[in-house]
Amino acid sequence: MRTRNLLVCLLLILSAGALVGGGAFLVFPEGWMEMTPELVLQHSPFKNFLIPGLILFTVLGLMPIFVVWGLIKRKDCKFAQALNLLPDMHWAWTWSAYIGFALIIWIYMQVYFLQGFHWLHSFYFFYGVLLLVIVLLKPLRKSYSVKNKTN
């Protein structure tokens, strides 16, 4: 239970930051807080922040909220289960891992497109790794195993 609560907290913190950052890019696609498309996106396929903001807002902002709901309520969701690559695990557990991987990929792509590095990249990269480590802890895996229906 404590492991799940830690995962839920980390997902909600990630979500809050992504909703604010992604939302700002949706509202201000031509730049925000000294970040202009010419400065930040010059090596990317994007002309402004609209698409990156939409990805950030949905994948790392809204998706963690959906997963937190699944982790807490343990409800079935046909759509989420259809995308669950590990059907012996509850979809919310698998999707928690997806979010960890998504964060790591997001940071990797930022560094690649920026062709530069900031200390926050390290922070969020290891945040994604931490999410994966927590998801893989034995008590959490056991708790969300479909075979263990006594949740």
Write structural notes for this entry.
- This protein has 151 residues and is mostly helical.
- The chain has seven helices and no strands.
- It has helices at 2-27, 37-40, 50-73, 78-82, 91-114, 119-136, 138-143.
- Helix 3 runs antiparallel to helix 5 (91-114).
- The longest helix is centred in the first third of the chain and has 26 residues, at 2-27.
- It is elongated and about 50 Å long.
Question: Would you summarize the structure shown here?
Answer:
This protein has 151 residues and is mainly alpha-helical. The protein has one domain.
How do the helices and strands line up, and which of them pair or pack?
Elements: H1 2-27, H2 37-40, H3 50-73, H4 78-82, H5 91-114, H6 119-136, H7 138-143
Helix pairs in contact: 1-3, 3-5, 5-6
Alpha carbon gyration radius: 17 Å
Biggest sheet architecture = none
Secondary-structure element order, as H and E? HHHHHHH
Mean pLDDT: 92
Count helical runs: 7
Summary tags:
151 residues
